């Protein structure tokens, strides 16, 4: 829709709002303009729009932040060196000075990148650029001689979120005081102070330690020691694990000297608060063990000492020494000796039937269910040893063996044999095949192998540790042989399986002969497990033998031709 609107009284004054003054125009008092309504509204809206007010950026609450300040003061008699490292962040783009350090120190060198270090009531960083800054000051301060009471070094540190003062080179007979306080950490002539984050003055002074602050001199202690020991025999050595309870009635309780046999080895010490342990030799050759604890004035101590003594397996007597201190009075020690298979121990006080529940918990854990003998004795226990004879067990057994023999009329035979051998260590297995046979194939766990031929005709296979989860190795071979041809009417056959020295739990043997013959009787060291069965012109007899060792299963078959009775 179009409308005739008088723009002289409405449009032109509106468009002129906020605009620059227009040049003079002709008299348009009686002029008219005709435009579409949509254009008129667009002009109206444009005249009403105003520029949004500009928002000034918010200023940071602080102009700078010193994230970290570390001061390192190296003392010297005449002049001391002070190094200061700063991590600073400027937050303002106006010129400003950031206070760093003041007081009785003079600047020797400064490092601040493209910024400047200025002198303003001390030393300050001059900056007008926001960003992170690393600065370093190297200064010279008064010597240690002038810091000794009543002298003092006065410094003024600026604010920093993390502020630390490290002072090194402190004389051995003096201690450092900062604002009258001792350091949070002191070691090897170096003191570390963690200062408040606010800016402020710091007074550094060397002072003589107060009598009440001086450490007490350490006094030797006279100890009494008792032990509980678990002893094991292994690889020609007696292994001792001794838990010691040490008690002193005097001294500082920080040092203990133990005596061990001269041939003691593999010595180790552990325990709460133990600082160090040192092995040595006494004048008489006896092994010494010096134990030092960190904390003084604790007169009841617990520690564990481990050591080993060489011991011949043929010795008829064992000597078991307990750790003692020089000049110690007689003490009772508990020994729990883990007895190896076939070892019998005899001696005064031996108790072989003590329940493990009566032992301390740590002993129960260490023994772990093994057979043991307990004895209470003094510093030296002597026992008589007697090794009882033991019975060797089989290194391997054949858990299952299967043989299948097939015979044809002319006496030719083929035998397939499979042995499942259970063993846990590598095994050199031997097997004797029947005489005058030809070995066709041989496999171990499915892989082809070539057995070794021994002088007596036996075959030997080297079997590795089984990879099977059941711990077995499967050996299979096939061989051919020939016997006398079958008689046309009746006769007898002598058949046998391979022989192995291993114990066989079960042997299953299938013998097949031509189907036009039948077995009338059997004789041998095997038993028939059922009647003969015939399939496809073959008659099969199932035989079985259980529990044999070093024996060759054999059978004599009596046969006759079928149909002779008709």
Cα-atom radius of gyration? 52 Å
Distance between the termini: 131 Å
In percent, how helical is the residue content?
under 10%
In one word, what is the shape? Answer: flat
Number of helices: 3
The biggest beta sheet reads: 9 strands, mixed
Plain-language structure description:
- The protein is mostly beta strands and 566 residues long.
- Helix content is 4%, strand content 53%.
- It contains three helices and 42 strands.
- Strands 28, 29, 31, 32, 35, 37, 39, 40 and 41 form a nine-stranded mixed β-sheet that branches.
- Strand 28 (396-407) and strand 29 form a beta hairpin.
- The chain is flat and about 145 Å long.
- The model is unreliable at 1-20 (pLDDT under 50).
Write the layout of secondary structure elements.
Layout: E1 2-5, H1 11-15, E2 33-36, H2 37-48, E3 64-74, E4 79-90, E5 96-103, E6 105-111, E7 116-119, E8 123-127, E9 131-142, E10 153-157, E11 162-168, E12 175-178, E13 185-187, E14 190-194, E15 200-207, E16 223-234, E17 237-248, E18 255-260, E19 265-270, E20 274-281, E21 287-293, E22 300-310, E23 317-321, E24 333-338, E25 343-346, H3 361-367, E26 372-377, E27 380-387, E28 396-407, E29 412-423, E30 427-431, E31 438-444, E32 447-448, E33 452-453, E34 459-463, E35 472-482, E36 490-496, E37 503-514, E38 517-524, E39 527-528, E40 533-535, E41 538-549, E42 554-561
Parallel strand pairs: 3-11, 16-24, 28-37
Antiparallel strand pairs: 1-2, 3-4, 4-9, 5-8, 5-10, 6-9, 7-8, 10-15, 11-14, 12-15, 13-14, 16-17, 17-22, 18-21, 19-22, 20-21, 23-27, 24-26, 25-27, 28-29, 29-35, 30-34, 31-32, 31-35, 33-34, 36-42, 37-41, 38-42, 39-41, 40-41
């Amino acid at each position: 829709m179009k409308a005739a609107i008088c723009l002289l009284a409405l449009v032109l004054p509106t468009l002129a709002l906020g605009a620059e003054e227009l040049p003079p125009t002709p008299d348009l008092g009686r002029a008219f303009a005709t435009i579409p309504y949509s254009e008129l509204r667009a002009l109206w809206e444009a005249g009403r729009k105003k520029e949004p007010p500009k928002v000034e950026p918010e200023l940071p609450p602080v102009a700078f932040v010193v994230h970290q300040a570390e001061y390192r003061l190296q003392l010297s008699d005449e002049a001391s060196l002070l190094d200061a490292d700063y991590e600073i962040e400027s937050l303002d783009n106006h010129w400003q000075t950031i206070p760093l350090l003041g007081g009785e120190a003079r600047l020797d060198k400064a490092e601040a990148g493209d910024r400047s270090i200025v002198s303003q009531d001390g030393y300050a960083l001059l900056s007008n650029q926001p960003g992170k800054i690393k600065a370093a000051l190297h200064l010279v301060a008064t010597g240690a001689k002038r810091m000794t009471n009543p002298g003092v070094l006065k410094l003024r540190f600026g604010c920093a979120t993390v502020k630390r003062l490290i002072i090194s080179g402190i004389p051995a007979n003096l201690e450092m005081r900062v604002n009258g306080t001792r350091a949070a950490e002191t070691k090897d002539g170096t003191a570390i102070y963690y200062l408040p984050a606010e800016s402020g003055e710091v007074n550094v002074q060397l002072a003589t330690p107060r009598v009440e602050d001086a450490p007490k001199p350490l006094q030797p202690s006279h100890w009494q020691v008792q032990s509980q020991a678990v002893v094991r025999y292994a690889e020609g050595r007696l292994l001792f694990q001794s838990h010691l309870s040490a008690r002193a009635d005097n001294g500082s309780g920080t040092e203990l000297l133990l005596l061990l046999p001269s041939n003691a080895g593999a010595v180790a010490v552990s325990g709460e608060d133990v600082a160090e342990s040192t092995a040595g030799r006494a004048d008489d050759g006896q092994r010494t063990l010096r134990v030092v604890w960190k904390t003084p004035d604790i007169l009841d101590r617990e520690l564990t000492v481990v050591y080993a003594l060489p011991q011949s397996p043929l010795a008829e007597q064992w000597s078991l020494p307990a750790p003692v201190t020089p000049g110690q009075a007689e003490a009772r020690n508990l020994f729990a000796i883990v007895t190896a298979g076939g070892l019998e121990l005899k001696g005064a006080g031996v108790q072989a039937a003590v329940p493990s529940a009566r032992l301390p918990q740590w002993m129960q854990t260490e023994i772990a269910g093994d057979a043991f003998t307990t004895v209470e004795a003094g510093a030296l226990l002597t026992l008589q040893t007697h090794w009882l004879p033991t019975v060797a067990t089989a290194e391997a057994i054949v858990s299952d063996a299967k043989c299948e023999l097939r015979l044809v009329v002319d006496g030719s035979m083929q035998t397939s044999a499979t042995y499942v051998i259970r063993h846990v260590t590598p095994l050199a297995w031997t097997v004797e095949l029947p005489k005058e046979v030809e070995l066709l194939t041989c496999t171990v766990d499915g892989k082809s192998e070539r057995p070794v031929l021994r002088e007596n005709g036996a075959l030997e296979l080297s079997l590795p540790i089984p990879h099977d989860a059941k711990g077995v190795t499967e050996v299979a071979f096939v061989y051919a042989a020939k016997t006398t041809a079958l008689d046309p009417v009746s006769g007898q056959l002598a058949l046998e399986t391979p022989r192995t020295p291993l114990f066989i739990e079960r042997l299953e043997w299938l013998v097949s002969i031509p189907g036009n013959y039948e077995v009338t009787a059997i004789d041998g060291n095997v038993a028939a497990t059922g009647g003969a069965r015939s399939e496809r012109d073959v008659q099969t007899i199932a035989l079985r033998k259980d529990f044999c060792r070093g024996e060759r299963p054999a059978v004599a078959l009596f046969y006759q031709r079928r149909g002779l009775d008709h």
